[in-house]
Amino acid sequence: MESTLIELLVLAGIAVFLILRLKSVLGTREGFEKPPLARPEPRSPQRKFEVIEGSPDDDIVAYVAEGSPQAQALAAMKRAEPTFHVAEFVQGARGAYEMILMGFETGELDGIQPFISDEIFQSFVDAVSAREDQGLTIEAEFIGVRETAIADATFDTATSTAEITVRFVGELTSVVRNREGEVVEGDAKSVKRQKDTWTFARQMGRDDPNWLLVATDA
Q1: What is the model's pLDDT at position 7?
Q2: CATH 3.10.450.240 fits 58-217, yes or no
């Protein structure tokens, strides 16, 4: 009898050991078990798009039509001077427009002489002298540049001379007074819109980064 009991206890112990062993391997399940997640398929390597030589230059086509003579001239400027950027030129031209225009309006020409050609400077001197002879003075305040657009661009490969023509629409107030201080033209409270077309020139590749105003056509 005792041997039979011992055998039953041994068998029971083996059964408990096997049950615990199975749980440790299979784990437990509760409710509805989610199906195993499918393994993601390996992704094909993404293609890297490179700029192909001859493709449009965004820095150029943002200002002139693709393939136009102006675009070709701007591209030639870049080849002659790789650090040249059209966007930077346009930004600089806006600043030059304000500085030169206000220098002419107020008659303070010394500060703008380094940025204009000798011919343009002399025409400014003559105009300011004519105003002074009539006893006229101008009081002006620059409001801002409303529009800036490249109208033309040329490049002389023989001399590396670049010319870019820019159309400006500026806004300012301007009052002309006579010797007695009376207003003979303009209104200090009225904003005047002024349209100008200016041409800037520079020899590409030179250390001097300044462009010169070489022509004006209002």
Answers
A1: 59
A2: yes
